[in-house]
Design brief:
- The structure holds two protein chains of two kinds.
- Chain A folds into two domains: about 10-60 and about 380-430, Urease, subunit C, domain 1, CATH 2.30.40; about 60-370, Alpha-Beta Barrel (TIM Barrel), CATH 3.20.20.140.
- Helices cover about 30% and strands about 25% of the residues of chain A.
- The longest helix of chain A has 17 residues, at about 215-230.
- By secondary structure, chain A is an alpha/beta fold.
- In chain A, strands 1, 2, 3, 4, 5, 17, 18 and 19 form an eight-stranded mixed β-sheet that branches. Chain A has a six-stranded parallel β-sheet with strand order 9-10-11-14-15-16. A three-stranded parallel β-sheet of chain A has the order 6-7-8, sandwiched between helices.
- Chain A has helices at about 80-90, 110-120, 145-150, 165-175, 190-195, 200-205, 215-230, 245-255, 265-270, 290-305, 320, 340-345, 355-360, 360-370; strands at about 10-20, 25-30, 35-40, 50-55, 60, 65-70, 95-100, 125-130, 130, 155, 180-185, 200, 210, 235, 260-265, 310, 385-395, 410-420, 425-430.
- Chain B is of the alpha/beta class.
- Chain B contains twelve helices and nine strands.
- Chain B has helices spanning about 15-35, 60-70, 85-100, 115-120, 140-150, 170-180, 210-215, 230, 240-245, 250, 275-280, 285-310, and strands at about 50-55, 75-80, 105-110, 125-130, 160-165, 185-190, 205, 220, 260.
- In chain B, helix 6 links the parallel strand 5 and strand 6 (about 185-190).
- The chains are: A alpha/beta, B alpha/beta.
């Protein structure tokens, strides 16, 4: 970082949108010393300030992505932190929570500190690591949750692996409660899902693919809601994809239980037909669902049952995906498309813009316990400037960053990130 | 507007009645030519057919080999054991190798659903799916249809019961699509654990007992039950399966008096079918299916070769 005061930046002629403050107004925003100094209908131009003309685009808080896998450590051939940071900046993401099921797993306080530091080194992305819930994310022994928490782990999870044992989950919820920490679960009953690659039903039957029943999600969700109730612990369900599971979560919330959840763009933008004739880029975990479930996810986004939208970014390289469907590795990239795929639902009328942005900023920030995701005066100037109507085409091979395994390949989208600022520094410009 | 000629034969699903009918007609002529020994050995002269089998199958491989040779093709057999190599890596590496060899016709058997589709995107040859995972086995359904049509004179209006392990059967899926496209009624009969989810959405009627499932049917198609199904808890034992779902004379009595008995082979005698039924010359057409297999595959190779020429 250069010494001395950096010049002010004034972003003019923008629609300021901040769900955290309920702000929706035309105006300008002033960045000073990496923080949001002021915003309003008309701000004077301080001397020497860099002037950015927003030309009517939307200026919102930098997005907070609460679920992404990074290639580092262990899978650098898929993606590095530098390439993920590049994709995140192009997607308007300035804060990202990374999963701990890397190689090695983030089950040691030193690794959590390392990931945080690696984020700071990018200069464009705050990395908030999840701690491994169990050693090696192997689902056997609890990791050192207290020490990991002290080192900066934002919550605990085994990543893409379900915490299968009810006994272990019960202990984890109870123990983590003592540290005020949330347990994040991949809700899928492993014995029902074993060997499955697509949602059980007509399409999987036609393609001859072993199925995973949608009920595998609901069964795990029902169990863990009950365990949260038993222990007083806090459970968060990641990438919820079925109407049945969402109904259980809605009911649990109505009863006042400490249950939250997120979903990811594939589950409200695509349905199982995206796997077409064995398209391995659409092989995800959980698998893409029936159209009725997609509609249920949209309804749950609108009514508040779902607390956040996460990218569920899972970088893979060509060799991971150029395989027969069932042998291809599950997962899709999501950083560069997070905002635009969400905006598709705004354009389609399913979500108000302010709600969509809340799901991408203040809500995940609240769940992660971080103070990002707002335009409040004095907050770090993490900002995303986007043109809501600007059209573009998602093309595998042309996405920012290294990983190109997007399930949205060929999708035309409206809504383009124009610029991103991290702590007042512009880290992306279209 | 005529549809563009198909370059590959990957699945029955999506094929329509005229296309299937034309293939069956062509196969009819090969049945006769085979019986007289006067097959057109110049049709595929100078062309290379490779049997690429990632799964063992003497029967299907031999049938394609014979079909290719009777049309004058150079036939090579490549067996690749999926267990001994780093699975999918070989699939595309193999595709590159085959392109370098200038193979014209590629017959693929693979234990993964969709593997021939993936290969078809990468090779220059015409790909024939000889069975992929639990997805499809199109030439088996075609030869079954040829057998039925020759015996009954038609397919339309017949009722066919497909019995046993439908869940894991690519033969069943291809047959369901083909028979429905040709205007037959199709039933599937088996324990709920061996019927795939939402199978009724394919347009079939579902039965869980042989007495009602076979009542009045014109054709009984039995499927092979693999031993590992017992280990996975899908059925408790072979003897229980045979008691309720194995085809014996008593169960067959429910079918129409003239009903044909079919099996794609290899049979598990005493598990899905009793020997006296399998070997009954009046009812069983199992051996005839094998004969039709060669003629049907000759027709497929003929058709794909002409399509490749027309598209060249």
């Amino acid at each position: 970082m250069p010494e001395g005061p950096t010049p002010d930046t004034l972003i003019e002629r923008v629609r300021l949108l901040d769900p955290a403050c309920g702000l929706d107004a035309q105006g300008a925003l002033l960045i000073r010393d990496g923080r949001i100094a002021d915003h309003g209908a008309s701000l004077g131009r301080p001397e020497g300030a860099t002037i950015v003309d927003g030309a009517g685009a939307v200026l919102c808080p930098g997005l907070v992505d609460m679920r992404a896998q990074l290639g580092e450590p262990g899978y650098e051939y898929r993606e590095t932190i530098a390439s993920a940071a590049e994709a995140a900046a192009a997607g308007g993401i300035t804060t990202l929570a990374c999963l701990p099921d890397s190689r090695p797993a983030l089950d040691d306080p030193a690794l959590v500190r390392l990931l945080r530091a690696r984020g700071e080194e990018t200069g464009s992305l705050t990395i908030l690591p999840y701690g491994a819930l169990t050693r090696g994310c192997e689902g056997q022994e609890l990791a050192e949750l207290g020490l990991l928490r002290e080192a900066g782990a934002v919550a605990f999870t085994d990543g893409a692996r379900t915490i299968a044992s009810a006994r272990l989950m019960r202990r984890a919820l109870a123990y983590a409660r003592g540290f005020g920490a949330r347990i994040v679960q991949h809700p899928e009953d492993p014995s029902l899902a074993e060997g499955g690659t697509a949602t059980e039903g007509e399409l999987a039957t036609r393609l001859g693919l072993p199925g995973i029943p949608a009920a595998a999600e609901a069964i795990l969700v029902a169990r863990d809601i009950r365990l949260a109730e038993l222990t007083g612990g806090t459970v968060h369900f990641a990438h919820v994809s079925t109407g049945e599971a969402l109904a259980l979560i809605r009911a649990a919330k109505d009863r006042g239980l400490a249950v939250t959840c997120d979903t990811a763009p594939p589950y409200f933008d695509l349905n199982e037909t995206a796997i077409g004739e064995f398209r391995s880029f659409a092989r995800l975990s959980p698998p893409l669902r029936a159209e009725a479930d997609r509609m249920a996810v949209l309804a749950a986004l609108a009514d508040g049952t779902i607390d956040a939208i996460a990218s569920d970014h899972q970088p893979r390289d060509a060799d991971d995906k150029r395989l027969p469907f069932a042998q291809a590795s599950a997962g899709g990239t999501g950083l560069a498309t997070l905002l635009a795929v969400t905006l598709a639902q705004v354009h389609g009328g399913a979500l108000p813009l302010i709600r969509a942005l809340a799901l991408l900023t203040v809500e995940p920030a609240r769940l992660l316990g971080c103070d990002a995701g707002t335009l409040r005066k004095g907050a770090a100037a993490d900002l995303c400037l986007f043109a809501p109507e600007r059209a573009w085409l998602v093309e595998s091979g042309a996405l920012p960053g290294k990983a190109q395994n997007t399930p949205f390949d060929g999708r035309a989208l409206e809504g383009r990130v124009l610029a991103t600022w991290k702590a007042g520094l512009q880290v992306f410009a279209e | 507007m005529a549809p563009p000629s198909r370059r590959h034969l990957l699945q029955i699903e999506g094929m329509d009645r005229p296309e299937i009918g034309a293939l069956l007609d062509l196969a009819e002529s090969y049945v006769l030519l085979n019986r007289t020994g006067k097959t057109p050995r110049d049709l595929l002269r100078g062309r290379t057919l490779i049997n690429l089998f990632f799964e063992d199958s003497t029967r299907t491989r031999t049938s394609f080999e014979l079909a290719g040779k009777r049309l004058g093709a150079d036939v090579l057999n490549m067996s690749v054991s999926t267990s001994s190599v780093n699975k999918g890596e070989t699939l595309l590496d193999t595709a590159a190798t085959l392109n370098a060899m200038h193979c014209d016709l590629l017959v693929v058997r693979h234990d993964q659903s969709g593997a021939p589709h993936l290969l078809a995107q990468k090779v220059e040859a015409s790909v024939v799916n000889a069975g992929d995972g639990t997805h499809e086995h199109p030439t088996q359904a075609l030869l079954d249809a040829l057998t039925i049509r020759r015996r009954r004179g038609r397919i339309e209006g017949l009722t066919v019961a497909i019995c046993g392990d439908v869940m894991h059967s690519r033969v069943a899926r291809s047959n369901i699509h083909l028979l429905l496209a040709m205007g037959a009624s199709v039933r599937v009969v088996g324990p709920p654990t061996l019927l795939p989810s939402a199978v009724e959405r394919l347009g079939v009627e579902v039965f869980h007992d042989m007495a009602s499932g076979l009542a009045g049917v014109d054709v009984v198609m039995m499927l092979r039950l693999q031993k590992e199904r017992m280990a996975k808890g899908l059925v408790p034992s072979a003897r229980e399966f045979f008691r309720f779902f194995g085809l014996d004379k008593a169960k067959l009595a429910a079918a129409a008096p003239h009903a044909l008995v079919m099996h794609p082979g290899p049979m598990n005698r005493g598990v899905e079918i009793a020997s006296d039924v399998a070997d009954d010359p009046l009812r069983s057409v199992i051996r005839e299916q094998v004969e039709m297999g060669v003629a049907m595959r000759m027709a497929v190779l003929d058709r794909l070769t002409r399509a490749a020429l027309a598209n060249a």
